[in-house]
Design a protein that fits this description.
By secondary structure, the chain is an alpha+beta fold. Helix content is 42%, strand content 21%. The protein contains twelve helices and 13 strands. The chain has helices at residues 65-69, 85-95, 104-120, 145-160, 179-197, 203-210, 243-256, 258-281, 288-307, 313-323, 350-362, 387-395, and strands spanning 6-17, 28-43, 49-54, 59-64, 129-135, 174-175, 213-217, 220-223, 231-236, 328-331, 339-344, 366-370, 378-380. The strands form two sheets. Strands 1, 2, 3, 4, 5, 6, 7, 8 and 13 form a nine-stranded mixed β-sheet that branches. A four-stranded antiparallel β-sheet has the order 10-11-9-12. Helix 2 crosses helix 3, helix 3 (104-120) packs across helix 5 (179-197) and helix 7 packs across helix 8. Bound molecules: adenosine-5'-diphosphate (ADP), (3R)-3-hydroxy-3-methyl-5-(phosphonooxy)pentanoic acid (PMV) and magnesium ion. Adenosine-5'-diphosphate binds at residues 37, 54, 56-57, 104, 107-108, 133, 135, 139-146, 149, 196-197, 242-243, 333. The site of (3R)-3-hydroxy-3-methyl-5-(phosphonooxy)pentanoic acid (PMV) has 17 residues, from helix 6 and helix 7.
Length: 396
């Protein structure tokens, strides 16, 4: 691969049930989303420079390879390992980032530096690269943009450093790596998530890597086969929030009120189990009764998520608006604002959906009708990229 330009993409995700509880060992059900993060990597013309350009967050940085090379002795990992506090301190000092930062750009840069130095540190010399990452996903809205960022960076860096193969063949638009290679991508992307989130469960990077529909519990990833087609309305309240802060808040509540919070997490676990049971019992299509169960599960979980402290007035409003049209919604991802999902039954009148969407956009929210179960991280030919993506990557 050395010396080639490459394009990689990774999907965002929607958590159907189990957000937050999954951080504490419970089950989550998650699916790949057809909004993706795209990355272009090419060798730098200037042999002593590493450049990264992140147009979504307005960050453009470059470093001297010789300066980065001085950090290598503290990294050089053979396999994915958790970033140590000492390694993070070294990176913060190098990047001029204050400790305890939750700033978007700082977290993105720290994650990049950690992954670049760890993955490429064993090479004779760090490679001079130009990397652009651009995403269709809103950043920090619960759709796993941090994981899609880490997964696409890792797949590109592992390919560029020849630790995984270059799977593309002539005339093939998208190619995927082998299961073993994807396991390595997922393992490193989890470390990137740790830099950004502090204490991630690993569900988001698993969906970014494998796509489709997954059951995730304590690191165990089980693909859910033949999930019936679900129509989902995805709404972004546009209220910004930080996964890191929300995850830390739930942990504090759990430590303070273990006897009160643990049963709530167990109930969320039971909701995920029941949802999986319904989806798998209904491979030939969901009946009206199945839909009523799924709707009730959504309502109950939304109440639980409020109890554990990750609700937000914008999400309450969203649920009220959709309920007024007979629809059921819950937050997805870390909550505190960000996105919610609304289940749409297949025979729903388009006028009902349109009226709900209109009222949501009157609240200042952004809606998408999505298809779920998108493929995981992929190597793409430049000709396979939508025009919007090519433009964003090349003009950044
Ligand atoms: N396209 C991107 N470019 C740069 N950084 C990104 C991008 N997408 C995500 N990130 C990083 O991920 C962080 C958002 O992660 P998080 O709070 O977990 O929200 P999300 O729900 O979108 O994953 C951002 O602050 C930024 O550091
Ligand atoms: C809240 C959590 O369950 C999901 C977070 O998703 P997001 O970063 O908000 O897209 C945290 C995790 O699983 O690591
Ligand atoms: Mg995230």
């Amino acid at each position: 691969m050395a010396g080639k330009e490459l394009y990689v993409s990774a999907p965002g995700k929607v958590i159907l049930h189990g957000e937050h509880a999954v951080v504490h060992g419970k089950v989550a059900l998650a699916v790949g989303l057809n909004l993706r993060t795209f990355l272009r990597l090419k060798p730098s013309r200037d042999k002593n420079t590493m450049k990264i350009n992140l147009p979504n967050i307005g960050a453009k940085l470059s470093w001297n390879i010789s300066d980065l090379q001085t950090l290598v002795p503290s990294f050089q990992e053979c396999e994915p390992v958790s970033p140590s506090p000492e390694q993070l301190d070294i990176l913060k000092t190098f990047a001029g980032v204050s400790s305890g930062t939750k700033d978007t750009e700082s977290l993105a840069i720290l994650a990049f530096l950690y992954l670049y130095l760890s993955i490429c540190g064993q090479l004779r010399r760090l490679p001079s690269l130009e990397i652009v990452v651009w995403s269709q996903l809103p950043t920090g809205a619960g759709l796993g943009s941090s994981a899609a960022y880490s997964v696409s960076l890792v797949a590109a860096l592992l390919t560029a450093s020849e630790k995984i193969s270059y799977p593309a063949q002539d005339n093939i638009e998208t190619a995927r790596w082998t299961q073993n290679e994807l396991t390595l991508v997922n393992g490193w992307a989890f470390q990137g998530e740790k830099v950004i989130h502090g204490n991630p469960s690993g569900v988001d990077n698993a969906v970014g890597t494998w796509g489709g529909a997954l059951r995730y519990q304590a690191g165990q990833i089980t693909p859910i086969e033949r999930v019936p087609m679900l129509q989902i309305l995805l709404t972004n309240t546009r209220v910004p929030r930080s996964t890191k802060t929300l995850v830390a808040g739930v942990k504090d509540k759990l430590l303070k009120y273990p006897n009160i919070m643990e049963p709530v997490l167990s109930s969320i676990n039971a909701i995920s189990e029941e949802c999986q049971r319904v989806l798998q019992a209904a491979v030939d299509g969901l009946s009206k009764e199945h839909y009523s169960v799924l709707e009730e599960l959504i309502d109950i979980n939304q109440h639980h998520l409020n109890v554990i402290g990750v609700g937000h007035p914008s999400l309450d409003r969203l649920c009220q608006v959709t309920a007024s049209h007979g629809l059921h919604s819950k937050l997805t991802g870390a909550g505190g604002g960000g996105c919610a999902i609304t289940l749409l039954q297949p025979d729903i009148q388009p006028t009902v959906v349109d009226a709900a969407k209109q009222q949501l956009s009157d609240c200042g929210y952004q809606c998408w009708e999505t298809s779920i179960g998108a493929p995981g991280v992929s190597l793409q030919s430049s000709s396979s990229l939508p025009e919007e993506v090519t433009r964003s990557l090349n003009t950044a």
